Amino acid sequence: MQNENKNKLDLIFHGAVNATGGVYNKVDVQGYGKINGDVECESLHCAGHVSITGDLIGSSARVEGNASIKGKVKMDTLSVYGQLDVADDLNFTSLKVGGNVKVQGNMAGEDVKVHGSLKTAGDCEAEVFRANGAFSIGGLLNAGRIEVILHGSCEAKEIGGEYIEVRRTGNSTLGKLLKHFLNNTLTVETIEGDEIYLENTKAKVVRGNKVEIGPDCEIDLVEYSTECKQDQSSQVKTLTQR
């Protein structure tokens, strides 16, 4: 593998450069780069602006500037601290979002950490989904374990998982100040899981085995199998044991 990597060329951008797609070892963008075609690389680092008209496939990518991908993205490790726009699907093993990520298709991977803003028009599937920021999922958010700390508006059409936990920003002075400026609420049509704990959540239907409705929730229907608790500050129109 090391010998194969040595035979691959690096693609380095300083200033404004146009290049052709292909197979590279390292792609490093410090200026403005446009790549026509698909790109396959071991690593991509973008501290400037890069536009790729095809697919992006590789082992690792770190976006600190602005990256626009007109096709699909498939990366083992992807870290975004700037802006990433993907016109098709995004597949990964590990995704860290410290900046902004927008996906026009579906997302699928193992581990997602959101500390910035994540938006996808389709579904998002993962083993673990942790958000300490804002997200908008146009379809289904599905993960074995979902942990959300609300910083700003969060929304999804549906949420499903074995363990689902949604908490508002803490009761610190900073948290109280943020509550006045940000809409720290999760809005979703349906939540289904085995063990569910919710705060600051607006939902039409919540279904689970063990369900706890914490503070400041508005739920139309809660269906539970074995156990359900409800905070007095929350509103549940209909509560049913299955």
From TrEMBL:
The lineage of its organism: Bacteria, Bacillati, Bacillota, Bacilli, Bacillales. This is Cell shape determination protein CcmA. Belongs to the bactofilin family. It comes from the Bacteria. InterPro entries: BacA/B.
